[in-house]
Structures are given as C-alpha cells and as structure tokens.
C-alpha cells in the first residue's frame, strides 16, 4: 500500500500534467485512506476547478469543513470558487471567515513566540 505522502505527490504530479481525471482518482484514494488529510481535500478541490467543475470543488471543500469548520484553506478556496460562479455574497462570507481564522492563527503564533523566546547563545 502506498503511503499518504506517495499518493499525494502522485496526484499532484498528475494534476500538474493536466491529467485531471487520474489526479482526482488518486486524491479520492488518498482521502479514502485518510479522511483527515486536509491537503488532499484542498488539492482535489483545486483539481476539480482546473478541470472546469467549480461545483465539485465547492462540494469537496464543504466536506473538508464538516471535518474541520476552522480550516483556513477551505474558506479561502470557497471564496475563490464562489467568486468564479458570480456568487459574491457567499465569496465575501468565506473570505471574511478566512481572514478571521488567519488573524487568530497569527495571534496564537505571536503568543507562542512571546512565551518561548529564542534563546541567545
């Protein structure tokens, strides 16, 4: 059995080669193997977008949000997908949520750095 990483790289290579159907199959295989592999969801959604199926990309990112409602990349991708469909209100809602999630992550990182400053030697 191939590792998650092997499948991910294989699917990315197929997507970059514009072999979208094959890439989609491998991303789906990876997701079946590991339902929490978020990068696979995002890459699968983008592959659907590049293959011309925005609706399927939205569906994939919505599944990712079911697993993790605070998934920043899902929110960002959904903003792009909805914008491409001309659904500006929905795009702006996901962009706003992505921005807030990004700010929260930056604040966590600042707090972490403050609590654990680099040691000087």
What does this structure look like?
The chain has helices at residues 4-16, 20-33, 38-50, 54-67, 72-84, 88-115. With 121 residues, the protein is mostly helical. The protein has a single domain, classed as Serine Threonine Protein Phosphatase 5, Tetratricopeptide repeat. The N and C termini lie far apart (46 Å).
Q: What is the average per-residue confidence, as pLDDT, rounded to a whole number?
A: 92
What's the domain count? 1
Main CATH class: Mainly Alpha
How many distinct helices? 6
Uncertain runs are: none
Write the CATH architecture name.
Alpha Horseshoe
Provide the succession of SSEs: HHHHHH
The backbone outline, from C-alpha atoms, is: globular
Distance between the termini: 46 Å
Here the CATH topology equals Serine Threonine Protein Phosphatase 5, Tetratricopeptide repeat
Oligomer: single chain
Class per helix and strand makeup = mainly alpha
Rg, Cα atoms, Å: 17 Å
Instruction: Give the tally of β-strands.
Output: 0
CATH superfamily: Tetratricopeptide repeat domain
Largest sheet: none
Q: What percentage of the residues does DSSP assign to strands (E)?
A: under 5%
Helix-residue proportion: over 70%
């Amino acid at each position: 059995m191939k590792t998650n990483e092997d499948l991910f790289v294989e699917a990315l290579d197929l997507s970059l080669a514009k072999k979208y159907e094959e890439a989609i199959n491998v991303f789906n295989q990876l997701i079946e193997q590991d339902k929490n592999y978020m990068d696979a969801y995002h890459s699968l959604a983008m592959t659907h977008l590049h293959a011309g199926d925005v609706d399927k990309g939205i569906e994939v990112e919505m599944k990712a949000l079911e697993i993790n409602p605070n998934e920043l990349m899902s929110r960002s991708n959904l903003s792009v997908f909805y914008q491409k469909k001309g659904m500006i209100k929905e795009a702006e809602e996901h962009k706003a949520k992505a921005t807030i999630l990004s700010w929260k992550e930056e604040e966590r990182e600042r707090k972490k750095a403050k609590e654990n400053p680099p040691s000087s030697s």
